[in-house]
Automatic annotation (TrEMBL):
Keyword ATP-binding set for record: yes
Boundaries of every ABC transporter domain copy: 12-239
Name this protein carries in UniProt: ABC transporter domain-containing protein
PANTHER family: ABC TRANSPORTER ATP-BINDING PROTEIN ALBC-RELATED
SUPFAM superfamilies cross-referenced by the UniProt entry: P-loop containing nucleoside triphosphate hydrolases
Single GO MF descriptor: ATP binding
InterPro entries, A to Z: AAA+_ATPase, ABC_transporter-like_ATP-bd, ABC_Transporter_VariousFunc, P-loop_NTPase
Keywords, comma-separated and alphabetical: ATP-binding, Nucleotide-binding, Transport
Signal peptide annotation: none
Gene3D superfamilies per the UniProt record, alphabetical: P-loop containing nucleotide triphosphate hydrolases
Amino acid sequence: MADALANEPLALEVKKLTKVFGDRKALDNVSFSLPQGAFLSIFGPNGAGKTTMLRMLSTLARPTSGTIRVMGIDAKEDPDKVRDHIGLISHNSMLYPDLTAMENMMFVARLYGVVDPEARVRELLRAVELDHRRFDSVRTFSRGMTQRLSIARALINDPDVVFLDEPYAGLDPHAVEIFDELIASLREGRTFVMVSHDLQKGFAACTHAMMLARGRVMVCSPKDELDFDEFKGLYRETVGMGVA
Ligand SMILES: Nc1ncnc2c1ncn2[C@@H]1O[C@H](COP(=O)(O)OP(=O)(O)OP(=O)(O)O)[C@@H](O)[C@H]1O
C-alpha cells in the first residue's frame, strides 16, 4: 500500500543533522522528512542518539551541523516560532515541584499567552484526570501523576507537532490507557514523534518507523512499506550491537 500521507505538507524536514560531543558523534548526518499527520516512532539501543535528536528537533539543543525545519520554520533562524508549534513530553518533566499543579499550568499558559488560561488549564487537567489534585504541589505527586501533568503541560499551546521521549516510562496500566486515549483524541491533524523502547506498542501506534544505531539511520520508512517481523529482526540485531 502506498504511503497515505505522502502528499501532505511536511511537518519535519531534517537535513544532514549531526551532533558532536567532544570526539563522539551522537548523530551522524541524519536526513529524513515527515508529512503532517504522521506518527513517527523512533527505536534504537541505549546511546543510539534518540534523545539527542529529539532535543534538537524541539530546539532544546543546537545541532553541530545540518538543518531542521518544523512546520516550514527553520529551527536555527527562528527557534521561538518553532516553539509556538511544538510540545515536548520528556523524562525531565519541566515542572516546578514547589508549585501546585494549577500554578505550574498557569505559569506555562501565561508564558504562551493562552487566551482564557484558567479554562484551558482546567480542561487539560480534567483530560489527564488531575483536576481534583490541582491545589497540591507537584512534589507530592507520584511519578505517574507527574508524567500526566507533564503531558498536560506539553499540550498547553495546542501544538501541531508533539515530541514524546519514552512517554510510557513510569506509568501504571490505567495511566497508559489514559495516555493512549489522550493521544488518540489528539491525533487528527497533528504530527507525533515518539522515542520508545517498546517495539510492539511503538510500532502499533506509528505511521512511520525509524531505527537509529550509533547515531545513524538504519531504516526510516512509512509503516506500510515495512514488514514487522523483519523490522523486529533488525531491532534485535541493532540492540545486540550494544551501547554506542
Ligand atoms: N550532554 C552530553 N555530553 C556528552 N555526551 C552526550 C551528551 N548527551 C548525549 N551524549 C552521548 O550521545 C550519545 C547519544 O545519547 P542519547 O541520549 O541521544 O541516546 P539515546 O538513544 O536517547 O539512549 P537511551 O536509549 O539510553 O535513552 C551517547 O553516546 C551519549 O553518551
